[in-house]
Amino acid sequence: MNISVSELIVRYLECLGIDHIFGMPGAHVLPIYDCLHDSSVKTILVKHEQGAAFMAGGYARAAHRPSACITTSGPGATNLITGIANAYAERLPVLSITGETSTYILGKGGLQESSGEGGAIDQGALFASITRYHKLIERTDYLGQVLNQATQALLGRNPGPVLLSIPYNVQKELVDEAVLEQIHFPRQTALRHTPTTELADLLRAARAPVIIAGHGCIQAGARDLVAAFAERFNIPVPTSLKAKGVVAEGTALSLGCLGVTSNGDAYRYLANQADLLVFLGAGFNERTSYLWDGKLLADKKIAQVDRDAAQLGRVFQPDVAICGDIRTVVEDVFAALEADDMPPKSLERLVGHRTATAPPASNDDTAQMESFHLIQRFFSKLARCFPHDALVFDDNIVFAQSYFDVSDRNHYFPNTGISSLGHALPAAIGARCFSPDSPTFAILGDGGFQMCCMEMMTAVNYGIPLNVVVINNGTLSLIRKNQFQLYGERYIDCDFTNPDFGLMAQSFGVNHYRIETEAELDALFHDADLTGDINLIEILLDKHAFPRYLSAR
Known about the structure:
- By secondary structure, this protein is of the alpha/beta class.
- It is built from 23 helices and 20 strands.
- The strands form 5 sheets. The chain has a 6-stranded parallel beta sheet, sandwiched between helices.
- β6 (133-136), α7 (143-155) and β7 (162-167) form a beta-alpha-beta unit.
- α1 (5-15) crosses α2 (30-36), α3 packs parallel to α5 (81-90) and α9 (197-205) crosses α13.
- The longest helix is centred in the N-terminal third of the chain and has 15 residues, at 49-63.
- 48% of the residues are buried.
């Protein structure tokens, strides 16, 4: 049976299991919107197309499956770029659908034309470096092949965003619905990997091994397995920022988060106690490596396991490198060590590390801690009051890295990727669409909040419960910190005046909480509905207080 291309695209979305699509209509994409009207796919109208891309990314991060956004051509598409770039950096399977001027006027100066013809902007060129696959679909005879290519990019071993741009007249053409049968959905089979014998040998020989758990453990569905492995053999586990909670933080074997903005506990143990580092799906980027500090790797054996061969040996030379599915590798090593009845490792070094006196705090550090007491207490109460199933999207990652103990049943999503401001709020909305019963928090600075604050109305329009936590200090903290440390306190374009967030919340029709004291913070967690309401929560902070870690120069 023949159906319109627009109807076929909607059915394709359904085949991918997409149940929400985030976007904003325009004339050149209305045929698809018209078909969405009767579809099982729920549309979410955003306030800005960048928000649509961030929402789709948030959905994909929470769901571990494809998500989608849709806009018109021209400015609709260009407004997606930051969000799609973030999805590319995070390897998120986000499908972007945009309209385009009809093919018979390409190159003639059509309104919002993005074909690259006749001086028009070239949308394909703009997205070429931030998508796994992109295509301007000018004909229907190869539509099946295009959708198949898109599917492989979205669902393959190294997923990422896809852009399909469909001219207005092509959307209305008829095609055989059997086109969908040309799409091959990849099977998710375990990767083959090199033998794990050498890794098992390293673990047997080590006195003080450490597992550095990365986001790859979460992607592989290996959180419980890694925790069980660590517990069975008494192996301490620090995590990368994106992997907080792989092993419940605050428990005996957790060393917390490894990274330049953390409290330094994991760094000290790795540098002074460990003799074997096992990287499981963890990169060694600027933050995690303390700007590639050689003390972390010196005089140690190193093993690295990653599903992406390009990560192996990228920034350090491992003694053992295994390209494979992390869950499968850990299962194999677990079985080999159990077969030998390997005893648990001694915890003597870990106990000694924890009983040793921490480096004395300077006067500046003490004053800094006092300035951050409200934020520290906020994260402490968040961990205690919401020990499982919470979704926490965090643009202001510096505080959470040290103060937020993530349980193995919570989900923490730091703003990594390209680290764009204004990400947490729309991303949290997208995630809550996937998980409608999960308490959801978006944590932002006041500068980032003003980039995306209108998306709160998207949450209001669709009744999506959400807690937006704004750290209000009237400055761009990272810029002010750098200008304090590196530029002789020559402050420029970092300070600003905020609007009255209480009046803003009132105009939005959402609850507002202004937190200046511990009593007000305690009342928030005791009295507010942080699961079913939409709340704007501002926590006041002195703009002169900021972490003293040194940024890269």
